[in-house]
Design brief:
heterodimer; A: 277 residues; mainly alpha; 0% strand; globular; B: 248 residues; alpha/beta; 26% strand
Amino acid sequence: MTAPHTEPDFGSLHGSMRRTGAMALRYVYILRSSWPRILELAYWPMMQMVLWGFISKFLLTNSTWVAQAAGVLIAAVLMWDVLFRGQLGFSVCFLEEMWSRNLPNLFITQLRPHEFIIALIAMSLVRTLIGVLPAAGLAIVFYHFSIFDLGLPLITFFFNLMMLGWSMGLIITALILRNGLGAESLAWMAMFILAPLSGVFYPISTLPDWLQTIAMALPSSHVFEGMRAVMFGGQVRLDLMAWSFGLNLVYLAGGGLFFLHTFRIARREGLLLRAGE
Amino acid sequence: MPLPITPVIEVENLTKRYGAVLAVDGISFTVGRGETVALLGTNGAGKTTTIAMLLGLLLPDAGDIRILGVDMVHHRYQALGRMNFSSPYVDLPRRLSVAQNLNVFARLYGVDDVPARVSEVADELDMTALLDRPSGELSAGQRSRVTLAKALINRPDVLLLDEPTASLDPDTADRMRGYLTAYQARFGTTILLASHNMAEVERMCSVVFIMRAGRIHARGHPSELVARRGRANLEDVFLDIAREKAAP
């Protein structure tokens, strides 16, 4: 008979890492359980890449702006996918728990909400890389454009966009927890409000003045402006990266507090028991 | 003189309101170490709400809950690792295999030797052959065994069961009851179960709390309750209480 010695120090770092790892393992099991799902992760970014690759090819000879920096639209679509997939990866893993009505099972263990969030962040990273790396490879093969030529700034662009994706994921999952699965479409729709405001495919100066003010409050706008600065002038704009990172810290803190506040409401109103209905 | 039973679950003036509905109305009870206690009541009597508060899934509006000496409202994580719960209404993720599900929960509960424990609990519940099957493809009886395996994975000191034999055929239900009784005798586990099966309760439980409209209306040993009310069995006692008019 094996004694199931359990974690004696309930709040230890080791225990916390173990529970976070258990949740990440669960999402890896889910991912592995269905190859069409893995394919689906890469399918949409690759299709977007094919489409925008041809549009770029056409505009290279018909647009002086695109001609100045071949690949600017391809880079933009890849970066947009990082942001979109970052949020979706986070939210879909949360939705898995709602769909399988597993939240009560999870939160009667010692799993803390912040450990759950860290597992969702880790899986969002994995799912984003599975989605975006094949599309980046496709751009190299078909359009001779490598996003990796952006060099070190690419790392800051990537993580700033992921951080915004996680912040949005926290807000969206909190809203789903509060309102039930009737609100699940938020996971697919909500991010698109950021696309026109972030200047994904055009400079922020294109927007009317009042929208530019809103755009500058978004971390993503600074990333896309920074990306164009590198591609058009070879200029690394540290000021834009600093703005983006600073705003992201505020957004992440706000998203985290909103999620934790909603979790407390869920415990007060019995929403964890009804999750999935 | 018998030794006093150490209370493992202590509930005092527990109250929960959902809007205008008073789901649990100031109930108090204790459950001693190694006891099996039933919460009975009609649908909406407050059983599930009470269990959810004991598990920390639901915050009470008022009252105290101490489990294993831990204040569950403020420090629940100190006790949750020594508790577990099983309900046919809270499913395990269906796309994962049984082994994967047990593996994840064993890690969440901080079980030391996960593969050994998963294999042991599967062997004890006669479900080794199910380990590689997706949880969603199991029959109701098999799913109940798997849910119980999840609830025993950390060998809890306190086990909360919501209708443990609901939707099971009489043979499987009987085996399940037999297993739980033997398990409890072996490890001294404290069991609190909510059930609508009076025969099950009479067989398994030393104490019964009958709830109606959020309050405990009767408590005691099943045979004592039957004798006190001059009825033939616990089901008659239950029906009497369920049909009594609520006090104005």
